[in-house]
Structures are given as structure tokens and as C-alpha cells.
Amino acid sequence: MSQKIRPIAPPVERLHKQPRSQLKTYASEVGRETRHLTELSTLQAKDIKLNKNPAILGSFLYRLWQERTDKTKDTLEIDNLSDLSSFMGNSNYETKLYLLALGSIPRQLIYSNEDRELCVTTALLFEITFIYSKEVEAKYKDRGFQQLGSERLSFIKDEPISKITVKPNKYWIKALEKQPKGKYHGLGLGTVLLTNDSLRELKDRSPMAYKLFNYTASNRPEHKIREAGLIKALGLEDQVKKQGKLRVRKTIALGLEELVIMGHISEHSYEDGLYTFTFSDKFVKHPDFLKK
Questions:
Q1: Separation between Cα atoms, residue 264 and residue 282, nearest integer Å
Q2: Residue 150 burial by Cβ neighbours in a 10 Å radius (0-12, 13-18, 19+)
Q3: Which of 118, 67, 95, 124 is nearest to 233 (CA)?
Q4: Angle at 195 between CA 193 and CA 201, to 5 degrees
Q5: Smallest Cα–Cα separation from 128: which of 82, 170, 187, 168?
Q6: pLDDT of residue 175
Q7: Rounded Cα–Cα distance for residues 32 and 53 (Å)
Q8: Whole-prediction pTM value?
Q9: Cα–Cα separations (whole angstroms), residue 173 to 126, 186, 188, 287
Q10: Domain segments of the chain as ranges
Q11: Cβ count within 10 A of residue 255
């Protein structure tokens, strides 16, 4: 008697949502930081750019925040810093610096309000709290917590952390609210459906390729924009002043080619000051692909 052989089902593709506002923010705010993140010890340096790695960790945290088991809590609790470090492929010390970069310096966020007006506001990307044991508290209490006022970075680096709580800013939380069909509800620009693999792939891309991924993913799969508009959307005005438009144009072209190799961009062109992009459904599951 012959036995029927059942076909092996393909693995289920794991997906998560990212706020369109977050993608636009990372596209404009991320830059190639020349100084070391230890300068964040001041926690006030507004001119410190957001590095690509903290931004990717931010996207990963937002994904984990959606996947938290206890949805009654508005924060994500992390009791093992190594889980984050393993994903990023770096040390726990570096991960702590990335968390500081995400939760200590306000950034320019883009969103829409209830009246469908486009808004730009200054806010923290995440509310991040480092929680220490009672033993650590007792150790510093005798000193009047003086060291915490002048050497916060050393404290965070050297002392063992019991757990960390993470909460995205309110605009990104609102982006997850379900909207009634045909009606606009809540704040934000909505969300974009991405594959979980996209975050790992982006770790190996250049800052320019990362910015371009976020910009294109926040728009429709087929998109056109003037060069001046793209430079503004990517936050490259200062770079154009320092390097010249031609050099920046070449850097953009190299970033786009990285995304072609990655499989995100399927076609792109630049002609008479106009950029044209088309991206695939490999990493971004845009509703336009479902219609087709």
C-alpha cells in the first residue's frame, strides 16, 4: 500500500509592527557619530546624533514591547541584559550606552494629530529606567548619592542592574491603536509591518543605507521625491554644506545599492533632480502588496 507523502509546510514568517513615525524619525535623526557614546555622561548634549546601533536596538525594544506577555503593564521589563546584547552582538556595557542614547536625549518626532495636521515635536524616544538592588541602594545611600550626580555613567556601567523597564513614547504607542475603517483615530501616522529578520539585516548596513531603508519603508512601495526633499527627509542639510551635493549624492547612490543587494530595493533611479524608488515585499509587508 502506497503512503501519501505530505508536503512540508514552509516556515511561518515572523512579523512585527513599527510606527511610521519611528521610521521617519530614524531616517532624519540617525547620523554617523564621530564622538564616543561616553559623552552621554552629561545627558544633555543636544548635538549628539543618534547612532545607527541605538536606533536598531530601539526598534528591537519596540518589537519586544509589543510581544510582552503582560499587556496590563505599560512597560516592558528586562531582567537579563544579555538578551539585548546577544541580539546586537556587543557587550553589556555598550548596550547600556545604547539605552542611554535612546532614553536620555530628546529627538525630533514626526506624527499626525487628531485633525490630520502634520506635527514635529521634541520628545524622548523611550522612557528607560535602570533598577538596582537594595544592596546597591544601601551602598550609595551612605554617601548621600553624591556619585550619582557627577558620575552617572560610571554608576550605570559598574553596578549590576536588577532589571530595566522600557516604555515607548506616547506617539508610538498611539500608532498601534486600531483605526475604524474609513476613519482616522488617535495620534500618529500608523504602523508599518516588517519582518523580524529586517532588524538583523540592517545591523550590517551603512548609516546611509539604514536611513534610506527607514525612509522608503515609511512610504508607498513606488515613490518619487525631489533631491531637495530627500536631503531634508534624511537630515542631510549639514552634510551637504560640508561635503557638497555631489558627494552626498554619491553616498546616497551607494546606500541604495546596499539595499538592492539586501533585497529591499528592487529599482531606483535619479534623473534631473528626481529620485524614484521601488521596494520589494521581502522585508516590508505594505498593504499595496496585499492588493496585488
A1: 6
A2: exposed
A3: 118
A4: 130
A5: 168
A6: 87
A7: 10
A8: 0.85
A9: 11, 10, 9, 21
A10: 14-196, 205-286
A11: 21
Residue carrying the nine cell digits 513614547? 169
Closest CA to 63 of 98, 19, 116: 19
262-276 per-residue burial string, b: 16 or more CB within 10 A, e: under 16: bebbeebeeeeeebe
Q: What is the DSSP string of 262-288?
A: HTSEEEEEEETTEEEEEE-TTTB--HH
CA–CA gap between residue 24 and residue 213 (Å, rounded): 10
Helix axes 245-262, 207-217, angle to 10 degrees: 70
What is the architecture of the domain spanning 205-286?
Answer: Orthogonal Bundle (1.10)
Q: Residue 259's CB: how many other CB atoms inside 10 A?
A: 25
pLDDT recorded at residue 13: 74
On the question of pLDDT at 116 being above 70, the answer is: yes
Distance from C-alpha of 186 to C-alpha of 173, rounded to nearest angstrom: 10
- Tell me the three cell numbers of residue 181: 475603517
